[in-house]
Amino acid sequence: MIKKGIRRQIVMHYFIVVFSTLLLAEVIFLVAIRSYYYDSIYSHITNHIKQVEDYQKFSTTMNDGKDDLGSLLTVYKLSFTEMQILNVQGDVLINSSEFQPDESLKTSDISQAQSGNIGRWVGRQPNTGENVMAVSKMEQNNGQDAYIVRYVTSLERVNDKLFNVTMIATAVAAAVLALVLAFSLGLANSIVKPLNTITAVSAQMARGKFNIRIKGNYKYELGELASTLNYMAQEIIRSNQVKDDFISSISHELRTPLTSIKGWSETINSGGYDPEETKIGMEIITKETERLIGLVEEILDFSKLQQNEMKVSFARVDLKELLQEIMLNLWTKAEKRSIELRIDSVDKPIVEGDANRLKQVFLNLVDNAIKFSHENSAIDLIVSFEGNNVVVQVHDTGIGISEDHLVKVKDRFFQVDPLNGGTGLGLAISQQLVELHHGILLIQSELGVGTTIVVRLPRLLEDDSPADSPELPMLPGASS
């Protein structure tokens, strides 16, 4: 007995469908064969009875017509068939066998003949139990009912042939069912065995063995399932590696400012230093504390985004003004590396969004551009309209990103250059913040040539804002 499972379900379904189909086909076939044989016998006897209608010389009286009825029996009898002549009441007057019934015959063929039709009856002879067919027809003489001609033939030989045909058909059906059973078992095994293999490998993956892979060239949905699980394991390994790198990186990022804070705190507490040196130490402590706060806030923002708890307050935002403010914030950092920040914007690129969150996005993008640009280069911020969208491009001619890194650069914890500092969450957070504003963020880059980051946001067409805000002062060397 096949144990419960997919194998059993497949085998049972195939078997039941084929068995039902074969059973129906065999019943129809056997009924048709039986009807064919029985109808052939009936047709043969009926055609023979019609020849009797030409006989017009018989007497219907018990005494005078007996010799004529005997002649009728001699001329129209059939081989292996008993011929009977009955009166209109159903009593046997004469027959071709030695057996003479004592009672009137009451079978349905006689009643049908008495009503003017050719009667047919299939059943068992009361005295012998033999399976027979009887065909009866009322014959007339001078327009009056004269007698009933009745033929009775045995169906035993026909039934024997039908039984043999039934046995052959049953054997064929059994052979077909055996083939279907073998085929369904093979089909079930071709599905269940790969599933068992996939299940076993998946169980090992669930126990943390992500280096194991599902091997085998499986087809169709099973192949897709195996490929998906292998890809999942690969991604988990990559995510774990990225997470480990992140932990290592964030540990370094946290240790460096904490070391500085601790060192200067101990130095200040020890006393004996002049006020100028103490002021420098306090500035370093403040700077490193702000750096720590930035790291923690970045991690908290990412956590909120992952849990869908990030709250945004939508209002009208002029992206040109926002980018000018960002340029002011980062101008000192860019100036230290002789990097020129330039803006080229259309008038009133208005979007609906959270100004603080959008500022966070573009601060991260421009800060990254400064971080990975060469000295004495330029970074262009280009704002344009594209249909019902506002498109912001942050373009630099820095080190660029390789193709291998480009597909991963927006993944959480991923860092193109771990030695450059950071958590590897900036672009991941920016991506999700842009999506919260129903926009998209695209990165186009070529190693050694530069990078262009494109942010596309829905444009707010209705201008129902109050008076225009005054433009922020331009940076030295900036163009608009």
Automatic annotation (TrEMBL):
Q: Which domain of life is it from?
A: Bacteria
- Can the keyword Heme be found in this entry's annotation? no
Name the SMART domains on file.
HAMP, HATPase_c, HisKA
Q: Where in the cell is it found?
A: Cell membrane
Query: Sorted alphabetically, which InterPro entries does this protein's record hold?
Result: HAMP_dom, HATPase_C_sf, HATPase_dom, His_kinase_dom, HisK_dim/P_dom, HisK_dim/P_sf, Sig_transdc_His_kin-like_C
Task: Please give the start and end residues of each transmembrane region.
Answer: 12-33, 162-188
Q: Which GO terms describe its molecular function?
A: kinase activity
**Membrane topology, from the record:** Multi-pass membrane protein
- Which top EC class is named for this enzyme in its record? transferase
Its Enzyme Commission number(s) read 2.7.13.3
Keywords, in A-Z order? ATP-binding, Cell membrane, Kinase, Membrane, Nucleotide-binding, Phosphoprotein, Transferase, Transmembrane, Transmembrane helix, Two-component regulatory system
Q: Which CDD domains match?
A: HAMP, HisKA
What this protein catalyses is:
ATP + protein L-histidine = ADP + protein N-phospho-L-histidine
- Histidine kinase domain location: 249-461
- Residue stretches making up the HAMP domain: 189-241
Tell me which positions the record assigns to the signal sequence: none
Q: Which protein are we looking at?
A: histidine kinase
User: What is the organism of origin for this protein?
Assistant: Paenibacillus chibensis
